[in-house]
Write a structure and sequence with these properties.
Elements lengths: L2 H32 L2 H9 L6 H11 L15 H4 L2 H9 L13 H36 L4 H15 L2 H15 L13 H34 L2 H8 L4 H28 L4 H6 L5 H10 L3 H29 L7
Helix pairs in contact: 1-14, 2-3, 6-7, 6-9, 6-11, 7-9, 8-9, 9-11, 10-11, 11-14, 13-14
Length: 330
């Protein structure tokens, strides 16, 4: 690997490490600003009528009895290292998430719930990307026509409707009224798995279709106005060949680069969809942790999501650098 590549990757990884530290600190500060360890103990132990001894024992068992950021009773570096923030952050960076406040191993729960999240998010992403590109190509082909106008109007309408409406309407139409698909639930394997996933996948695709189609249409229209397109037309190529061969091939670079940044988020699941359809994925795991004020889970999920998102951005930068080698030297 050449030195420009080493400098390029080293700089990106250094930025990523700094960003992760900042996100970790912000998550820690915001959570304990809203909820104190005493509040967390009362919620986990079952209400306000909890004795101080029970609260102190619960905090000691989970390490919440230590100072958050600064230990005035220690000396030297221990004033900063013998704290809850430093200890939990150090373990976080080696992907040791420890146990939730409820006692379950967080890493095992993440592994178990990653499958359902991928089963929902991956088909939604692949099928949705293919449909949005196809529809955008059609609108670009019939640009400045009634097809383009009404197609753009339909995209704006889809963008304006909340995803909650699609969820409620889909459950009422396909589950309550027509009784074709289950209202909610999940099956880990077999033919029943697709019966539970089909409706959430369909709703996820529809919810993203309008925005993605408009985004891809704008990219195609920008490419159509470039010199290489005029050259291809001057050579006698038809509009279909120009659009579906030359324009599509060159437009895939920004489309795929933007998609790379989205792919890591697929592992985190969909917070709203998984919650409404009772899918035991990572999205519902995070929602449950927020509801129970389980700081260990919330912090671990935010950290994992940040790592995946940063990796996606680094992969996006690498893909751009492959397309334009000058980016590596900047």
């Amino acid at each position: 690997m050449s030195s420009p590549w080493l400098r390029f990757l080293s700089r990106k990884l250094l930025y990523a490490f700094a960003v992760l530290i900042g996100i970790n600190l912000a998550t820690f500060a915001l959570f304990f600003q809203v909820s104190s360890p005493d509040d967390m103990a009362r919620l986990q132990l079952g209400g306000k009528r909890v004795t101080p001894d029970a609260i102190a024992k619960w905090k000691a068992e989970r390490g919440y009895d230590r100072p958050l950021y600064y230990n005035a009773n220690a000396s030297g570096y221990a004033r900063f290292t013998d704290t809850l923030f430093f200890d939990s952050s150090l373990r976080m960076f080696i992907f040791d998430f420890g146990r939730a406040d409820s006692g379950r191993d967080i890493a095992s729960e993440i592994k178990r719930r990653a499958g359902p999240s991928l089963a929902l998010a991956l088909p939604s992403f692949v099928v949705g990307l293919g449909l949005s590109i196809s529809f955008a190509l059609g609108l670009a082909f019939f640009r400045a026509s009634y097809v383009d106008f009404w197609g753009s109007v339909a995209c704006v309408v889809l963008m304006s409707i909340s995803s909650l409406f699609f969820i409620v309407a889909g459950q009422f139409l396909f589950s309550r009224l027509m009784q074709l698909l289950p209202v909610s639930g999940f099956s880990p394997a077999g033919a029943d798995a697709w019966r539970f996933l089909l409706l959430p996948i369909l709703i996820a695709i529809i919810g993203r279709l309008g925005a993605e189609t408009r985004f891809h249409r704008s990219i195609f229209l920008e490419e159509i106005g470039k010199d290489y397109v005029r050259t291809a037309r001057a050579k006698g190529l038809g509009e279909g060949s120009v659009l579906f061969v030359h324009v599509l091939r060159n437009a895939l670079i920004p489309i795929l680069s933007a998609s790379v940044a989205i792919i890591p988020l697929l592992f985190m699941g969909s917070l709203i969809t998984e919650s409404f359809f009772s899918i035991p994925g990572l999205g519902s795991y995070l929602i449950e942790a927020i509801g129970s004020q389980d700081f260990a889970i919330v912090r671990a999920m935010v950290f994992v999501g940040s790592v995946l998102y940063i990796l996606g951005l680094i992969l996006t930068d690498i893909s751009y650098s492959l397309a334009d080698p000058r980016i590596r030297l900047q």
